[in-house]
């Protein structure tokens, strides 16, 4: 009895009926929530400046957990994509990810101006992406291209712009490794989103996948980029903190 009630509440009946999109919303919610708890708790195990990085990782996954809670509900009730919730989430979490990149390079002289450029580019990318997803068949390719320009600007900053130059001037192997992984996340991890977007009717991959699979792409990408990247920062933080403890002792 309790189980049936619980199953109803969390939408497990749909999940048991194996709706893969619903399953990923459900798992996404749990994973984001657990990660937020983990990042907040682990702040105690790292040194000063890394505490802020873990705080930001906790905020990113925490904000996403709340949105996944609502997105999962919306999807279960309507069977359609929770586009507005999705973009509200990204508008908060993507700039926070830019803060995360900035914090990584700040000890090596990153300036606030770089952060501002990254945030503006990400907002261009998201606002035009939202217009593309909601403005109908005829326009989604056009807005997708505009959005991609914002994305490519971020890729440029990380590979050849300010962020890249600063990380080259550092002699910390841990930071070098983090920057290398950051490049992989930005190019491979973030590229899953535009691929998902191309599933929209009238776009380049429409017909190849069902429209609802746009959420499969986005949910997978969110898990990789929000949790995965947070874990990368965490491992650098732990290594660097051990180093300073060793120096003191
Ligand atoms: C945690 C959420 C993240 C890291 C979201 C990232 C989103 C993108 C990189 C979205 C990119 C898009 C394009 C490059 C073109 C088509 C429209 C978008 C918004 C899906």
From TrEMBL:
Q: Which family does it belong to?
A: Belongs to the archaeal/bacterial/fungal opsin family.
Q: How does it sit in the membrane?
A: Multi-pass membrane protein
Q: Which organism is it from?
A: Cyclobacterium plantarum
Main localization, broad class: membrane
Stored SUPFAM superfamilies = Family A G protein-coupled receptor-like (SSF81321)
Q: Any idea which UniProt keywords this protein has?
A: Chromophore, Membrane, Photoreceptor protein, Receptor, Retinal protein, Sensory transduction, Transmembrane, Transmembrane helix
Which protein are we looking at?
Bacteriorhodopsin
Residue intervals passing through the bilayer: 20-41, 53-71, 83-103, 115-135, 141-159, 180-200, 216-237
Question: One Pfam match, by short name?
Answer: Bac_rhodopsin
Subcellular localization, as worded in the UniProt entry: Membrane
